[in-house]
Amino acid sequence: MRRLSPLLLVACATLSMAVSGCGLQPMYAGGSKGAIARGLAGVEVAPIEGRAGWLVRNALRDRLAPGGTGDAAGQYILHVKLDEDLTGLGLLGDDTIGRERFALQARYQLVDAASGEVLLDATSGSDAGVDVVSSEYATIAAEQTARENLARDIADRIVTRLALRLNAGK
User: Fold this and answer.
1) What CA–CA distance (Å, rounded) separates 137 from 117?
2) pLDDT digits (tens, 9 = 90+) for 41-56
3) Which of 14, 58, 106, 122 has the greatest number of C-beta atoms within 10 Å?
4) What is the DSSP letter of 46?
5) What is the bridge-based pairing of β-strands 43-45 and 118-131?
6) Phi, psi at residue 50, to the nearest 5°?
7) pTM for the full predicted model
């Protein structure tokens, strides 16, 4: 183990120099005081229709300003429109559906609150499979869990895309 320690140290130092030489920079440099984190904290999420909209909006708000509202709150407005689709798949021998595909698509726009300029217009989507079982309650619970998981996934994708846009604009 002692022989590997110097080799590991040299390998890490070499990798560190190679990465820093290629121009890569951490997006969230500076933590909560960094430019990207402050920009994300300045995004106000407009209300989103539906149950999935409520879930996505809460997930977005949790990710955009994890410590509460930012200093620049209201600098940007995020408009999101969701489209849910539940499709039955897997027809069983007794002509019942054995599997469902739950898809959630989001179209969103990041708007500068001062000028009204659309800074980002994009879409994101995610889907999940749901087993349809003999218990209707279990199936409804599985659909609700899928909706919650998809809302979190969509929120993560949107925040990543917003961070990339805000990073490009700095």
Assistant:
1) 46
2) 899 999 999 999 999 9
3) 106
4) P
5) unpaired
6) 90, 170
7) 0.77
